[in-house]
Amino acid sequence: MAEIKFIVQKFGGTSVANAKLREQVAHKIIEAKNQGYSPVVVVSAMGRKGEPYATDTLLTLVKDGVSPSRELDILMACGEIISGVVLTNTLNQHGYSAVFLTGGQAGIITDQSHGNARILQIRPKEILRYAREGIIVVVAGFQGITGSGEITTLGRGGSDTSAAALGVALNAEVIDIYTDVEGIMTADPRIVKDAKLLESVTYNEICQLAHEGAKVIHPRAVEIAMQKNIPLRVRSTFSDAPGTLVTSHGEVMENTRIGNYGLITGITHIPDITQLKIFTKDYPEVEDVQLKIFKAMALAGISVDFINVHPHAVIYTVKDEVADKAAQILNNMGFKVEVLSGCAKVATVGAGMTGIPGVMAGIVEALAKEKIQILQSADSHTTIWVLVRKEDMERAVRAIHEQFKLGQ
Ligand code: ADP
Ligand code: MG
């Protein structure tokens, strides 16, 4: 039998939100089928919070703040199941044979961390069986099953990961991530009106952007696709444009090579961060203060970021949602702590900035012009981060984007 030419097509929540949009989705799938591909379609739940079958809406059915559990995962898994069955029905109505599989039925095996499970293995037997018969396979994204049969979910952006893992397991020709924007851009187009589409980029560049908050694709998905060099495309459900092609050898982005600044891929943002400051000089009698603070955070499973350790003070950030817990722990240890919640991290990302002077100066200049205070900063060879107040976040992204002329 001739080898099957797989394509994985993932459609995000906004792409399958209503019947009219699902027609466009069906069109994309049928088009691939008619081009000789065997489509494996991964769907997210329909719509965003407020719409009846969206994941966030399902979550409101149970009491606020419920912690991850097997029941919660089963509830959340319903969104993708509903969405997948409905899309399968749409395809059938167009005269195409299609079948729906839950994550478990599709052989997506995960570990047991409910709410944030990791894919361990794909057993594609069922998918292969249907694909050999020429049947389009629709798979519920964001979910898997443990070795002992428990339903799990993969965390925010998990459908991207489902798609990438299936693409690798099936050795697909390409993994298409369809969404509500034209592709991966130099900044979130909702914030920066003249954000520019990145046409051809490397896995590494996109991985960095994704890790720093560009939520258009999940970083784990990029890492998985990269393992087997399966090309990823991020593109719009609502147009025929090619979108962003992510491979191991992206072209040098001539367009983002900016004068003396080297190569900047894009600007990202992450809101809802709290800055904590402890004046360790006030506790001369306590031994190993710094070590005690970070050990306590680690013990409580609180991840820390933006760490600045000075002789007189320790400053770092945590997510807003764990800020109270972190402050409580510090208080219990006898430390006074200054808490500044509602901050945001803005990152300027680009491998080309290594060793190029002036990038930080450019950022400081851009923010000074806008009278935005930098609360903290940090840098690596590929990224410069600044912490700002959340209300300044969008202006900061726009100002830095403008400073480096990324829209041109
Ligand atoms: P989906 O439901 O299709 O997975 P997401 O909401 O997860 O969609 O991701 C798409 C959104 O990502 C866009 O609507 C856009 O606002 C946002 N986004 C953030 N950063 C970027 C970026 N650099 N390029 C493109 N989109 C971005
Ligand atoms: Mg997404």
What would a concise description of this structure say?
The chain has 408 residues and is an alpha/beta fold. It contains eleven helices and 20 strands. The protein is 32% helix and 25% strand.
* Computed CA radius of gyration, to the nearest angstrom: 23 Å
- Global mean pLDDT: 93
* Poorly predicted sequence stretches spanning 5 or more consecutive residues: 254-261
Strand order of the largest sheet: 3-6-2-1-9-11-12-10
Largest sheet: 8 strands, mixed
- The rough form would be described as globular
Give a description of the structure.
- The strands form four sheets. An eight-stranded mixed sheet has the order 3-6-2-1-9-11-12-10, sandwiched between helices. It has a six-stranded antiparallel sheet with strand order 16-17-15-18-20-19. A four-stranded mixed sheet has the order 5-4-7-8.
- The chain is an alpha/beta fold and 408 residues long.
- Mean pLDDT is 93; it is low at 254-261.
- Helix content is 32%, strand content 25%.
- Helix 5 (158-169) runs parallel beside helix 7 (219-227), helix 6 packs antiparallel against helix 7 (219-227) and helix 10 (359-369) crosses helix 11 (393-403).
- It has eleven helices and 20 strands.
- Adenosine-5'-diphosphate is lined by residues 12-15, 44, 157, 179-181, 184-185, 187-190, 214-216, 266.
